[in-house]
């Protein structure tokens, strides 16, 4: 089995080449190491290899895994966030990639004020128009940006999207999704006279095109750690967990790396 440091070196070379095609440098891009269904030992492996950001898509998985993991990495939530999970999410994560409505934004702001949190957030945008994906419509983004800029307890850092899943030989089809989010971000910077430097886009199968089109965070799991093990039940599921979209079931149960 190849060691992570060797895999990572290859991935970083690919990122550097893709960044150069887009007129940027490798230092403009950071890897979010997606450890979904892997144990705390993989967080340690990622940290030891020099990866400073861990991405999880379930609040409840991070809740048990984080205390058992090495200290040091930033923890980012990349999965769909239900409103009833905002409080624990703010206690676990420094950045929320998947804020997909003004209602969710308002709840994050209110609870952040209550507990003294100041999270970074990204607005998730459904650029592909697929019904199976969460995220706000592009036309709803200006109102969400305006709402976020009116908040005092969170910081809007940028935007997140997911491209359609396509076969490897058709990965070029993802380019319009990534380019579209970059263009939308640029338009929002002009409209609001503000900087939104973060674009979270690109996963294991399409990260090179995402980097070419401006990604600053790429969410990588399988390409680094191999196929995910089957999820293990680590505690009883409470009523708040059952049937949550993107939290183990529902319309938005998504692969995010």
Question: How would you characterize the overall build of this protein?
Answer:
The chain has 257 residues and is an alpha/beta fold. It has a single domain, classed as Alpha-Beta Barrel (TIM Barrel), CATH 3.20.20. Helices cover 36% and strands 14% of the residues. It contains nine helices and eight strands. The protein has helices at 4-21, 40-48, 59-65, 86-92, 102-115, 141-149, 175-192, 207-212, 222-225, and strands spanning 30-34, 53-56, 74-77, 95-99, 120-124, 155-160, 198-200, 217-220. The chain has an eight-stranded parallel sheet with strand order 7-6-5-4-3-2-1-8. Strand 5 (120-124), helix 6 and strand 6 form a beta-alpha-beta unit. It is globular. The chain starts with a helix and ends in a 32-residue tail after the last helix. 42% of the residues are buried. Mean pLDDT is 90; it is low at 233-255.
Q: What labels describe this entry?
A:
8-stranded parallel sheet, globular, 257 residues, TIM Barrel, disordered C terminus, alpha/beta, single chain
Category by helix and strand content: alpha/beta
Average pLDDT score: 90
What's the CATH H-level superfamily name? Alanine racemase
User: Tell me, what is the CATH class?
Assistant: Alpha Beta
> What would you say the CATH architecture is?
Alpha-Beta Barrel
Give the amount of beta strand, in percent.
Answer: 5-15%
Q: What number of structural domains do the residues give? A: 1
Q: In terms of per-residue confidence, which ranges show pLDDT below 50 for 5 or more consecutive residues?
A: 233-255
**Order of strands, widest sheet:** 7-6-5-4-3-2-1-8
Radius of gyration: 17 Å
- The H-and-E topology, N to C, reads as HEHEHEHEHEHEHEHEH
Ends apart, CA distance between termini? 21 Å
The number of distinct β-strands equals: 8
The oligomeric state of the chains shown is: single chain
SS element count, helices:
9
């Amino acid at each position: 089995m190849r060691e992570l440091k060797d895999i990572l070196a290859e991935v970083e070379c690919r990122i550097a080449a893709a960044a150069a095609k887009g007129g940027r440098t490798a230092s403009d891009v950071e890897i979010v190491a997606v450890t979904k269904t892997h144990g705390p030992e993989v967080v340690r492996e990622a940290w030891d290899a020099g990866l400073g950001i861990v991405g999880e898509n379930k609040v409840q998985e991070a809740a048990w895994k984080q205390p058992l993991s090495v200290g040091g990495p930033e923890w980012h939530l990349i999965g769909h966030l239900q409103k009833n999970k905002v409080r624990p999410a703010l206690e676990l994560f420094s950045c929320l990639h998947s804020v997909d409505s003004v209602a969710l934004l308002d709840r994050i702001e209110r609870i952040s004020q209550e507990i003294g949190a100041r999270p970074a957030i990204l607005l998730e945008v459904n650029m592909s128009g697929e019904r199976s994906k969460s995220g706000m419509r592009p036309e709803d983004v200006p109102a969400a940006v305006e709402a976020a800029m009116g908040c005092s307890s969170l910081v809007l850092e940028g935007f997140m999207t997911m491209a359609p899943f396509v076969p490897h030989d058709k990965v070029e089809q993802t380019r319009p999704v990534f380019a579209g989010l970059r263009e939308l971000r640029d338009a929002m910077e002009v409209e609001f006279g503000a900087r939104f430097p973060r674009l979270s886009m690109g996963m294991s199968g399409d990260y090179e095109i995402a980097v070419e089109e401006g990604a600053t965070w790429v969410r990588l799991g399988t390409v680094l750690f191999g196929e995910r093990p089957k999820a293990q039940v680590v505690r009883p599921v409470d009523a708040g967990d059952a049937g949550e979209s993107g939290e183990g079931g529902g319309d938005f149960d998504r692969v995010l790396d």
